[in-house]
Predict the structure.
Amino acid sequence: MKVNYRQLSIMVFMSFIALKFLALPSLLYIESKNMSLFVALILMIVDGLYVFVLLDLMKKSEEKNIYEFMKSCLGPVLTKAILILLILKYALVVGNISKGLKFFVVENLYSEYNWFVFVLPLMILIGFMIYKGVRNIARVSEMVCWAIVIGLIYIALKALSGVDVLSFLPIFKDGFKPLVNSAWIHISWFGSATFMFMMFGFVDFKDEKKSKMIKYIIFAILIVQLLYFVFYGLFEVTCPTHNYCISDISQFSSTYSAIDELSWLVVSMWIVAQAVQLALYSYCIAQALKFLFDIKGNIVSIIIVMLYLLAWSFLGENTIKMEQIFFTPFASIITFIAQYILPLLLEIAFAIKKVNKNKKKVKNERNEKEVKVNI
Amino acid sequence: MKVDAVKTFEQIKKKLHDSSDIKSRMVQFFGTQICLCYIAPITDNMLLNESLIFPLVNFSKEIKNNDIVKELQDNVLANQEVTIFTDLQSAIDKLLAGNTLVLIDGADKILGCDLEKITVRAVAEPPTSVVIKGPREGFTESLKFNLALIRKRVKSDDFVVKMLEIGEMTKTQVALVYFDSIVDKKVVKDITNRLQSIKIDGILDSHYLVSYLQRNKKSLFKQVGDTEKPDILVGKMLEGRVGIVVDGSPIVLTLPFVLLEDLQNSDDYYTQPIRVAFVRALRLVGVILAVLLPGVYIALELYHYKILPTEFLITIMNSTQGIPFSPFIEILFIILLFEILYEANIRMPQYFGMAMSIVGALILGDTAVSAGLVSPPAVMIVALSGITFYIIPGQASQFSILRLIGVIVGASLGIYGILLFCVFILSYLSNFDSYKSAYLAPTSPYIEEDQKDSYMRKTIDEMKKRPKSIANNKKNELRR
């Protein structure tokens, strides 16, 4: 039930773009204005570098899953603590996507309907995909990926003529501090490679081509940059009022024949992309729960994830504010540790383990030689 | 076993419950009584006369052997296939398969000669796979004829026919055909094991075997390929598939099966690649229209009418005004009407067919619209979806069920539901790996080498390697 290298690259690509077109562009604008483009660019490049750190760790793990690998490097207690941290990170992503999907669907498509009705089929789909495993999610991602890309490029290009390029000038007029502030505050929207922790032992490196992964990462960065460029260029100072970049570009772009026209491609493809990402991160939660509590089989962990998804559907609109006040600093720390500290920690721990192992080996050999000499 | 010509014949008749069609012919051969026992309807009379009765009655030479059984087998019986039976039951089994038994007084063996009368219709173009260019021969209901049609195209010593007998009562002959050096042996073993474990009274058509060969038995989706044409079968075998030919069925099953097979047509390989790419794209669009169009239409009408361009919306509103049913009931009503018409049409005698089409399409459809029961766009949508089913006839039955689900989902959840439904189908099909082949390959998992014959087709000389999507032994060897 392994995923191949190409499928992993596509999953990375999808994860890189998944959270970027919801509320993030308008939130970034509050601190860093038009230069938010650079915040996204820098953090995505860093995420891209971490993909290769995680790939390196995956190979070093020698087919072990993340739990076994961490346990062998860090011991059981620290491993469990890290698993809790990862669950929190995944839960944040699932919550974010779930909330984004909810508002995208309810606001754009069914203003008079209760989200609770819509979350049930979503739960069935997600539950099914988790049950069938990561290869299933990888294969679905592989099939829908290009349709999503075409949809995104289509809306960006269609609205491109309305962009005021001069609004981006002069660049860096407020210096770099707002960029750093913005990057730290909204770091929880990044850390797109964290799902790879749960892919340890599930990747087939037979047809590995690093260039393939690099291409997908660059492509994801370019698409995000293009859409952000269009978004900031179109809405300028009104950006913070546009909560959902993806739908607002198509709805309020002056180049569209009629205001309020919603691009079909965006509606369709964005829902599909979010559903697949929701499945991926829900799978990660389920998998981490399995490791944490040593749960046999999938059912229990799937039920827990489903209940979590259901809980999100009960939370009202006030939760956006709640999240901004309560979650964000907390989320930044979690993401920072999970995405940026943990891989390095594991690299160091693995190196120490290897050095110790070599020392032990040399010592054993020396002892054996001494015994032989004595005999 | 000691044979008494008369008594053994009586014994056989008794075993077969005194069936009236069990016949015998007594002959004296150098003082020994011989009984020829056969089943009249399945025995070729001319062959019986020429190869058994005439040589026995007119044999005038000296007997060289003291063993009369050996003498008959070697020098008298003019039949190409003479089998020796040492027990009565196996002799009876062969009698039932069209052999004539030679019961020799005092012998300890029974001879069997294959004189089966093969009644077969002429080789014709199968109605389900009509082609504009390319071979028009189709399989018939005779296993021997079908194997001959395959052998005609295959002159390789690599070609294997493995016979099995399935069905307690019908004892139907089933042949596994494949190229020994190309096929994956594990796949052959798996199929053979599955077939040998079948316990059933009778196999009347190859489709009886389908449920035994499927991995997901209760699934809606087709998991076993089929063809009525020998050229398609040989093409599939050359890619590493196994053919299952069943006596009495003109449809040959093929395994492993991938979904993309149904998107391809034998015509594709006799047409220009550019045309093929266009036609395959049309088929893909056809699939989407067939399954999703009515569901999307309901979703738009019920939930997302704002998305529609104003002119289009006005046209639909004008034509749906005054319709007494909700869009869901309206579409459901038309779908059911079409399904009933379809069922009636294919089962009705041919001379009624035309009248039925006129009554169904013109009178019922037109009257329902004129009476204001259904709207013209709804009729058009369902009709368009119905026509596109037959772009891929092999999947038509699945599509009709999926369309119905799509309608229910579209009516209850709108576009959001339709999209989740699509993802669900993709996710469901992603798990359909069977006989070491992924159901959605070469799309997912993406196999670059196999794209030469997927949604587009390269020229024959460019397709140099066997597909990787199908489990086979010679993935990298030259295909042509």
